[in-house]
Amino acid sequence: MSAPEQGTYSTAYQAGMREEMERDATVFVLGTDLYDRGGHFSQVNGLGERFGHDRIRDTPISEAAMVASGVGAALAGARPVVDLNFMDFAYGAMDELINQAAKIRYMWGRPVPLVVRASTGVAQGGAQHNNSLQTALMNVPGLAVVYPYRPWDVKGLLKSALRGEDPVVFMMHKMLTGARGPVGGPDELVPIGRARIARPGTDVTVVTYGYGVGLAEKAAETLSGQGVDVEVVDLRTLAPLDVDTVVGSVRRTGRAVVVDEAPHLAGPAAEIIATISDRAFWYLDQPVARVTGAHSPIPHSPVLVDALLPDLDVIVRTVRDVATAQGPVLDPAVGAGAAR
Amino acid sequence: MSTDDDQAGVLTAPAPSAAGPADLPADGPALRDWLGDMLLIRTFEETADGLALRGKVPGGMHPAIGQEAVAVGIARGLRDGDVVAGTHRSHHHALAKHLPPDAVMAELYGKRDGANGGRGGSMHLADFDRGLWGTNGIVGAGLGIALGGALGSSILRNGSVAVGLFGDGGANTGRTWEFVNLAAVWNLPLVVVCENNLYAVETASKSVTGGTSVAERAAGFGLPSHQVDGQDVLAVQVAVRAAADRARSGAGPTFLEMLTYRYKGHNSGEVVRYRTEDEVLQWRSSRDPVERFSARLTDAGLLTPEQLTDLADRARRTIDHAVTVAEESPWPDPSTAAGNVSAWSDSQGYTR
Ligand SMILES: Cc1ncc(C[n+]2csc(CCOP(=O)(O)OP(=O)(O)O)c2C)c(N)n1
Ligand SMILES: [Mg+2]
């Protein structure tokens, strides 16, 4: 077997899209600034020329109409990908996404094979362009929410989404756009709803997703030099959540930290910890800690942004504390809430 | 188009005088002030654009070079106490509403002395004391805030008028027309301004916009709707003042489509491939708002070459000072980052 091809987070998406469009003539993409610009994150670069204006379809800035037309086209038997560029713009199409796409199978028995792709995650751009919508969307019955970290998973998850039956929200972290790594071939699918062990370890489990995976891997690297063997679980999909992989890991290590950049209150981390409590409570040696974004919008100034997010130092400190504590930790603030 | 209501209808020439350009008032000092504001905006934007390319503006910015007359004409057509709500491309609106350039520049940098302490940034500037009810990162959203401001004005009977801005791209988002409709049926003191610079990011708006013009579309909502030469500050000012007077008198909203042009790409550093260099040159050489207005003032004997040089020098000095302030201003205190989210959440200890 030859070594897998290398690519970036963004070119992996392009490649997956191109292959699926070649494989299935009903797959098409709609959104603003796709044909010439290739999207705001180069996600469909070069596909306009290859597939033409009908299948790389430019729209006006009409988010409700974009998602609505995707829902209807999916019902008609096509395979639309609505590309919102930024996840934040989904707010203008929430009814179409949540009250239509997510519920039509349940109400009327007709699946809606729709993919809504958007870049997301905290970066520059201030409060209105840095929402963590995964929190709200994973709470919507009927939606799958994927949030890959590696180029490999971007491509493989896209393929699964485009060959599945039901709506998938495809979230890609802005800070990973240019990140490099191996990319699978045309038939290498990554199943939706399955986490992966990004790094095996025996002392403590760090559960995370998206940009958090890279941070967790770095923290694990640092801690391995201090005698702490960290296992990192990359969720890849937030809904449906891969409970078995998370619980299996925590049962082995007996200790867990959840790293999540979303705002603290009722965020994904809270759900993950509740799941661990449900299914692995008697295996735990310490309470589960979480390192999350502060419960705050994202400001413009980089120094303020940094102060709100999980950073390497806090993750290292929290994971070390959870991994090494014997008996009750008297400082309940360990890992509680925001980075600071 | 309905003609039942003779207040509605599209004029394709500047509203108050379809016959030709509005007469120049004889008030030399005031008009030179307008020109000074336009020069200030031009200098600010060119400087900030260069700084953005050097990485000084986190996240970059959307320069409004070429659109100065729209902003200054609007601000000069309003009274103190009137309100403007802007877009993602709004430094010109902010400066025309006389936010201090120091504070705007420092805000772009994300510094403590910024208009919003570094929290807002280029797309989210605000100064409620000066009537800037936010510039906005969400296409079409500023108009909604202005709509609400107009509703507030009508409930409180405080006589203020609100101006809501959006672009040709914003003319295709549904919320824009919800706002226009409600302003019309509630007869609110709102001036709706579509700043039509022909492009939304890399999309030529004519390729994704039905109908003959945005102003024509608006007329269907039953409010007067006009196209205005957005490169003529006086035409803008006259149209806005007339619309604001009308709104203040209780006669309701007006829609103004300002025909303008942005010289730079959508954002600083964008490689522009979707229009010709020729087209840009055409607009720059024949319709530049700063040059046209200074020529007009000169012809009318209201501006000497020395006065023009003096205005340009003053703009340069002001902006140089703004850059110094932005450079030297400290970063905001990181310990404040999660504060002032909501009085409710602060009291519950949720923010940390
Ligand atoms: C709801 C929403 N959708 C998409 C965007 C991304 N976006 C920002 S500016 C812009 C183009 C806006 O074009 P226009 O309204 O013509 O304003 P201009 O940039 O020309 O000033 C787009 C698509 C956004 N900010 N908000
Ligand atoms: Mg535009």
UniProtKB/TrEMBL annotation, chain B:
Compositional bias per record (Low complexity), positions renumbered to this chain: 13-25
Bias (Polar residues): 337-352
Signal sequence, renumbered to the chain: none
Entry-linked Pfam families: E1_dh
GO BP terms, alphabetized: pyruvate decarboxylation to acetyl-CoA
Matching InterPro entries: DH_E1, PDH_E1_Alpha_Subunit, THDP-binding
Protein name: Acetoin:2,6-dichlorophenolindophenol oxidoreductase subunit alpha
Species: Nakamurella endophytica
